[in-house]
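Subject: design request, 130 residues
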């Protein structure tokens, strides 16, 4: 359990909607890091689900580093796909990063995402190693 005296660190990725919606890319409180749902940058508008997932994971890895943590601290991912037929490609990209970490994970299909070209969104939760 995190104490009331734990330091809060808000981390921004400079995404276009952070100021519009009033949220942070990630928030670290004590040992806990919560990374908001992350989609691929606009430069990946024409990319397939695998490539978008790799781009998303790159953003997540950068945020984890800014929180002074590592990918090995990830305990859970929640993956949203617009087309369940992309599940295998998304799983391949997820495995390339998390194969030895093996976080708890959920993958679900959703109707839509904020931008029509977005195929994947990933939420990530990590707890700093002791």
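Subject: RE: design request

Done. Sequence follows.
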């Amino acid at each position: 359990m995190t104490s009331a005296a734990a330091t809060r660190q808000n981390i921004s990725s400079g995404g276009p909607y952070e100021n519009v919606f009033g949220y942070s890319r990630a928030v670290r409180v004590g040992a806990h890091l919560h990374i908001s749902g992350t989609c691929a940058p606009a430069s990946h508008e024409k990319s397939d689900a695998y490539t978008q997932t790799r781009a998303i994971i790159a953003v997540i890895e950068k945020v984890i580093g800014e929180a002074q943590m590592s990918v090995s601290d990830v305990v859970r991912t929640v993956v949203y796909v617009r087309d369940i037929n992309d599940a295998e490609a998304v799983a391949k990209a997820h495995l390339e990063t998390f194969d030895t970490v093996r976080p708890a994970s959920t993958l679900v299909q959703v109707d839509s995402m904020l931008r029509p070209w977005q195929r994947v969104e990933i939420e990530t939760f990590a707890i700093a190693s002791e």
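Residues 49-66 form the longest helix (18 residues).
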